[in-house]
Every structure is written in structure tokens, then in C-alpha cells.
Amino acid sequence: MPYPKWHHSTIKKIKAITEKQLLFRTIIFSLFVFVSSYFYILNLSARNPLNKSVADTSIILIGLSMLLTSLCYFWNFVDTKIIYRKHLGLVGFAYGIFHIILSYSSVLSLLKPETWQKGIYWPLFTGVIATIIFMIMALISNQYSARMLGGIVWRAILRVGYIAVVLIWLHVFLLKSARIITWYIEGMKTPPSTGLITLIFMSIVIILRILLWVSLHQKKS
Ligand code: HEM
Q1: Sign of the CA dihedral running 12, 13, 18, 19
Q2: C-alpha of residue 99 to centroid of ligand 1, in Å
Q3: d(C-alpha 219, C-alpha 141), whole Å
Q4: pTM score, two decimals?
Q5: Ligand 1 mean position to 106 CA, how many Å?
Q6: Span 3-220: which CATH code?
Q7: CA separation for the pair 77, 189 (Å, rounded)
Q8: Which residue has the least CA distance to atom 12 on ligand 1?
Q9: Which amino acid residue places its CA nearest to atom 23 of ligand 1?
Q10: CB-based contact 82:72 (threshold 8 Å)
Q11: Mean pLDDT per 10-residue run, the chain (221 residues)?
């Protein structure tokens, strides 16, 4: 179905919901994700359950915000949820800021010369670059910026968000891969860590975006 027709029929399905209601529902949903992740991590007896679950909630919400575009393109079961894209991104970013505050000792380690001399900055550096990208996206996610920048530039900047998801994938992979490999080699005696679950989730977000890009490219040519 051509985009204008799809957009028109989708908007018809969506009941009039105010911005406040959208934000409120997104926050309730985020609390559900946060509590589920927190108790899952507690059950695994892993260290720092608060920071881990805040970080997981952040990337799940931001990832869902981006995943909605691909899901709505290939299937129609979440068409009416497309209106939550901005709120998922903003609430997810707020959890990201909280995660950075809770990781203050790691943030401080980036200011030490040894971190750079030993070349151990990559896991955190990828997180910092992604945070800057998410911050720019959050700042321009309003009608005023869209008007000032023009639709094409505005959408192009928001698409850089996928690079930030790749950077967070690297952030988690570099921080967690050694433990995930040990868990696998030792026979997977416990349920998978949230680090592994978020890596799989982010891979789905990235793969579906690539498939969407390929499909649009094929249609154009
Ligand atoms: C919005 C940006 C960010 C997101 C979405 C994010 C996301 C994540 C995720 C999903 C994890 C894995 C949690 C788990 O094991 O379940 C993680 C771990 C971690 N991140 Fe980030 N991160 C971000 C930025 C940063 C920054 C800027 C720093 C510090 C400079 C940082 C420091 C850490 C640390 C230290 C861990 C390990 C926590 C632990 O295992 O206790 N993150 N992050």
C-alpha cells in the first residue's frame, strides 16, 4: 500500500490521545520493563541489579521506538502504536541518563590518563558517543526543530539513531562478551543474562532496519 494511503488508514484507527496520555502510558510501560528486568537480574544473583535494569530499560525503549518503523512497514499488527515512537525514545533516553549517573565511577575512569594509555576506553567510549547522538535526537524531537531543519534533514538526523544502537550493541558486547562466552562454555546452567538478551534484541532492531532499507531501495530502483 502506498505510504499516504497507509498513513491515512492508520490514523483513522487511532483514537484521539493527548500528548500527556501518551507520555503517561509510556512511563507505565517503562516501569513494567524496569521491574521485570530488575527481578530477573535479582533471580540471577548478578551484581548491580539497579544499574543493569535501568540500562536494559533504556535500550529496550529506545530500540522499540526504532523497531516500530520496520514492524509497521512489514506487518500491520502494531500500526496503531506508531504514535508512541517519540515518547518511547524520550523516556528511554531519560533511563539512559539515570544509567550514566549510576555508572559515575566508569564515567570518572574516562578522565584518567591510564584508561587511554592502556587502550581500555572503547566499551565506555562507544556509550558516550551513543549518548551524544541520543541527546541530539531528543533535542530535535519536536515540531519546531522539524520546521526549522526541514523534513529531509530532520529525518536524516533521526536516522543516525541506528548508528547509536550499533554503538550500544558494541558497548554491551565489549562489556559483557567474556561473561557470556564463559556462561556458554560452562554449559548454560543459568538463564541467559540480560546483557545477552539486550544484544539479541538490538540485533533484531538493526537487522529489520537493514531489511527495510533493502526493500525501499529495491522498490525505488
Ligand atoms: C544512553 C546510553 C547508554 C545505554 C542505552 C547503555 C546501555 C547499557 C546496557 C544495556 C548495559 C548492559 C546491562 C546489563 O548487563 O544488563 C550497559 C552496561 C554498562 N554501561 Fe551503559 N549504556 C549507555 C551509556 C553508558 C555510558 C555513557 C557509560 C559510562 C561512561 C556506561 C557504562 C556502563 C557500565 C559501567 C555498564 C556495566 C554495568 C554492570 O554490569 O553493572 N553506559 N549499558
Answers
A1: negative
A2: 7
A3: 28
A4: 0.93
A5: 10
A6: 1.20.120
A7: 36
A8: 195
A9: 127
A10: yes
A11: 66 77 97 98 96 98 96 88 95 98 95 89 95 97 94 92 97 97 97 98 97 91 79
